[in-house]
Design a protein that fits this description.
- The protein has 340 residues and is α+β, with helices and mostly antiparallel strands.
- It is rod-shaped.
- It has two domains: 267 residues, CorA soluble domain-like (Beta Polymerase, domain 2); 55 residues, Magnesium transport protein CorA, transmembrane region (Methane Monooxygenase Hydroxylase, Chain G, domain 1, Up-down Bundle), CATH 1.20.58.
Length: 340
């Protein structure tokens, strides 16, 4: 049976290009490789070219795009290896940036992670994505709208806009995880179950994956912010600093959620332990009550021929009464000691 990964491998690579400057913008989708590469020539009047590749499983397409923009061979190699940590590498005439986008599946309560790679040039930006679908609709809208800051600034600002959109999408994922944590906490207070322990472990794994994506992202943005490359214009560092501040807030939120999940685990174990202790307490009390009763019944159950009580007409009721008296006395004693 074919897996989802196999089906995705056979999907064709989707190419999108936008060429714009202050007053005009041309953006086309679903292009063939030849059509897209033919539109990559520089835009007159100092315009910007944005090239989007959705799907990096076709090595021929990635290499053709890389050669068209004179990318370093190591950049092309890293683009196709989608297990990179967020990072920034300066190759002089172009800068390579790796980031990770996050998505949340509300049906399966799972967090999806996708590597996105940016290659920034003097007046162009190439974006490589693993699969179709992204969180960049707002960037495209600003790109298509005349008078926006994107249309008035360089490719470095466009890179900032994409990074900012990625970071903003993190907040939505963390919000969903925060709601799940609150639900798990409420359920633990009401009635702890084994399934809740599985949910807690799943939350811990998801938060760890978020941490691995967000922490290196902050370092990458910091490198861009303090870069001395001529590809990063003066003034763009202010916008990158804003992204850096957002990532710092995200890291604080992730750490808070991790501490909360850890406390949920401790709460679950404490609740289960307390419930077990309560059960053992009841069983111990029952066993303690039956010990003297068992002793009395054992004495009167001995098969000796000469027992004064054996033929007494009130012997059996007296034995039962003695047992009941012992039970009542023990319950009274336990109550006075506040054991029950």
């Amino acid at each position: 049976m074919d897996t989802d990964a196999d089906i995705e491998e056979r999907e064709p690579v989707r190419l999108e290009i936008a060429r714009y400057y202050d007053k005009e913008c041309l953006r086309r989708q679903n292009l063939t490789l030849d059509e897209a590469l033919s539109l990559c020539d520089g835009v007159p009047g100092g315009g910007i070219t944005w090239f989007n590749v959705e799907g990096v499983h076709d090595a021929a397409v990635v290499e053709a795009v890389g050669q068209r923009f004179n990318m370093h061979p190591l950049v092309i190699e890293d683009v196709m290896h989608t297990t990179q940590r967020p990072k920034v590498e300066d190759y002089g005439d172009h800068i390579f940036v790796v980031a990770r986008t996050l998505s949340y599946d509300e049906i399966g309560n799972e967090v999806g992670v996708e590597q996105v790679s940016f290659v920034l040039g003097a007046n162009w930006l190439v974006l490589f994505q693993e699969r179709p679908g992204d969180a960049f609709a707002s960037v495209r809208q600003r790109m298509d709208t005349a008078g926006t800051r994107i249309r008035q600034r360089g490719a470095d600002y466009l890179l900032y806009a994409f990074l900012d959109a990625i970071v903003d999408s993190y907040f939505g994922v963390l919000e969903n995880i925060g709601e799940r944590i609150e639900e798990a906490e409420d359920q633990l207070v009401e009635q702890p179950e084994n399934e809740q322990l599985k949910d807690i472990h799943a939350l811990r794994k998801q938060l760890l994956a978020l941490r691995r994506s967000i922490w290196p992202m902050r370092d990458a943005v910091s490198i861009l912010q303090h870069s001395v490359s001529k590809l990063i214009a003066k003034g763009t560092d202010l916008y990158l600093r804003d992204v850096y501040d957002h990532i710092t807030r995200l890291i604080d939120t992730v750490e808070t959620h991790r501490e909360t999940v850890t406390s949920l685990y401790d709460m679950y174990m404490s609740t289960v332990t307390n419930r077990l202790n309560a059960i053992m307490k009841v069983l111990t009390i029952i066993s303690t009550i039956f010990i003297p009763i068992t002793f009395v019944s054992g004495v009167f159950g001995m098969n000796f021929e000469f027992m004064p009580e054996l033929h007494h007409p009130w012997g059996y009721p007296a034995a039962l009464g003695l047992m009941l008296a012992i039970v009542a006395a023990m319950l009274y004693f336990f109550r006075r000691q506040r054991w029950i």
